[in-house]
Amino acid sequence: MPNESRARENDTATAFVIPAHRQPGLLAEAILSVLRQEGGPPCAAVVVDDGCPFPETSRTALAMAAAHPGRVFALRQPNRGLAAARNTGIEFALAAFPALRALFCLDADNRLRPGFLARAFAALEAAPPEVGWLYSDIDEIGRPQNFTTGGDFSLLMLLAENFCDAGSLMRREVLDTGLRFEARVPGFEDWDFWLGAASLGFKGRHLPGSGFLYRRRPESMLSAAERRRPALVRELHDKHARLLRPQRVLELEAAEAPRYALFSPERPGMRLVLDPAREPVASLDPAAARERLLAALESMERVHLPPALVFAGDAALGLLRAHGVVRNLFWLAEARLRDAEVVAVEIAPGGERDELAIESLPVGDAGASDLIILRGRNLGGLSRAKDIAWLESLASPKPEPKLRRMRVSLPGADAAAAGGGAAFRHLVAEVEALRRARRRRTALKPGWRADFRNWRDNVPERVHGFSGLGAVLPLLPEEGRRSFGFVLPLFALGGVERVVLRQANALRRRGWRPHLFVMGEQRIALTEEARETFESVNLLFGMGETDSDWPNAHFGAEVAAFGAGAAAEDALGLLAGMDAVLNTHCLPAHALMARLKGLGIRTFCGLHLVERTRWGNPNGTAHTALAYEHAYQGLTVISEKLRRWCVAQGVPADKLHLIRNAPGYDADPARIAAAVAARRDRAPGKLRALFLGRLDAQKGLDRLAAVIARTRHRVEWRVVGRAVLDRPGDLGFPVEPPATTPAQLDALYAWADAVLLPSRFEGVPLIVLEAQRFGCAVVATDVGATGEAIEHGADGFLVPADLPEPAMVDVVAALLLRLDESPELLADVGLRAADRIARAGARDGLRDFLDHLDRVVPEALR
């Protein structure tokens, strides 16, 4: 081809690709603006006539090519659209110009000032290799509008809106990757192209005053695209879904737009933070901090201002981090700042040992709070003298601004150590210093170019919103480690919770990051073991999460009403940083799982038992889970009986993972051996019997009371536990507080000869397994899969569940009295029980499930 042979003879370093279609009168002007570039590297114009129906287009291109051989090249193709025309020009330039270093897509109705190329090419050559393109301000032709795109490049901003025109000088290396323009998004081709470049690791850089002139008419291809914006944006986001993954967006937040600015009395200045449990991403001294804040207030489009300012002492933050709740508290504050201006938090000691609680407080004086969190945008008013009353009102009995107060009760926390009052005093001092700095500072004069972009402080929120997420937990991904979320409706250290704790420990040993999510409760039991196991502890409450949608019940089982609206989006944001989640008996979480699955998160449902209503008919968690089965990629069950039940209900067998229950903690082998040996030498008389567990109706408390009354003359009883779901009245016997530590549980099982579980429904109770490990004789009703843990008459005793109540009490009482009379029987049953548990540990199935997770979640979702 003559065009190509002439091209190979020159040393063109920059190519200007000019697609031409239906604009013949403007084409010559665009070509001439290329030819008139001054002082830059050798350049050429490649005109691609995209099947224009006007013959003037072809005549103009050919005439210019003939007049400027080696500098203007004319190509023609059947009409295939703007993207295809640009790609044709790109392919020609890459093949024809061996010395090519950069390329610019110049639309036929735009033009360049003479000094553009010299300035832009020098800036691109001087930039580091990861800078793939230089983007210009938007100076318009024909309309009195001019826009700046100044400030640091932000991929987050580019995900939210396009501020890089196709008229950007791009490095050849971007094109050498094979990246080209996409025809599926007409009008948004350039936005798609830059997102593609960013996904390959390139970034843009602003070139101020570049000399690029952009023609925009009231009706144009871009105007047509804007009318189709929702559909085109969805197409873009589907194509670039990897960039929108919540964990990837969190990493971008940390790098480009940290969510929090921390101010501490002990550390002058400001720390920029995304994850409050991790080290800050940047620290500024007081002068630099005030300069940064004031610059952001003057131009929120160019300079990022953290959306939340946090005033807290190091001691308060240290307490929250030590208990794993700091991320959750910041997340709760973020959600409340939507309809409030300030969130004030006080830290108090836990009401009970090992209890963590987060509760809302009435509006009142925030002056003694341990943390104060306010909107960053409020600084604009606070730094002016006329608004000082707003700040002072925070410490009045009836504050003027919209204020939300919370209290965090932490196990073993010393309220005095949190530094109450220091946060407010430091807030006042920082605002006063900012006001003084503002008076001394010469304000930035606004330029003649406007800024069309959104403020940077809300960009991450917008980007997360594209994935349907509200407030997102500020959890920064950790290289090489995956996050696993355990979702429960409560955490009171009953059997289900202890199974979850065991699973979490196993995951942590495999290198995972376990996180606890409790939906619908403001108080949980947080033992030292739980604090060491879970990297974060998160509560969601007061958002309608406990509501049931009974009008749409599924075969009589309740379903969640928690499926739409801002509350559900916030809950999705709470879980969105996970790589996998396991929902164990949590009603609202069912409504979230399909959308989490759509984000690429592996979703599992944990089932422990088939429950019954107060009238005895089957219902509850397992039946509810059937309504959401399609939203889960797997279901875990704790017994063969429950596995068969799920298959019978239509759950595919391949989705089921059998993880048999095992003792919830590791016991002291020496103590086990001593307890088993002591029972061999036991003389008849005064059997020691134990009830351990939740004091709820499910556990058969009326039966327990009747058995105790019938046997207390010969049996020494201990009842240990507390109510979780029900509020029982006076049981007629003393109740000891729950045992929560391994040492406390070991002491109880070592003391007991027999353990009674007169439950109305169960799964496979941990108490059975733990008691058997210590050689206790377990007497239990034959409900759920208890029969898989007890062989009647050999290593325990099963009482038929269908016996009338008086007969059942008679049978249980007779069994206990028989054990009291026969130490040999007691010892034999205990020995066989201990041996059974010792042999069963390696076959519980947990290792198989962990192996499955490693296969289906081989790496973090980033």
From TrEMBL:
This chain belongs to the protein called Glycosyltransferase
Record-annotated Glycosyltransferase subfamily 4-like N-terminal domain positions: 494-661
Q: Which residues form the Glycosyltransferase 2-like domain?
A: 16-175
Question: InterPro entries of this UniProt entry?
Answer: Glyco_trans_2-like, Glyco_trans_4-like_N, Glycosyltransf_2, Nucleotide-diphossugar_trans
| Origin species | Craurococcus roseus
Read off the Pfam families from this record. Glyco_trans_1_4, Glyco_transf_4, Glycos_transf_2
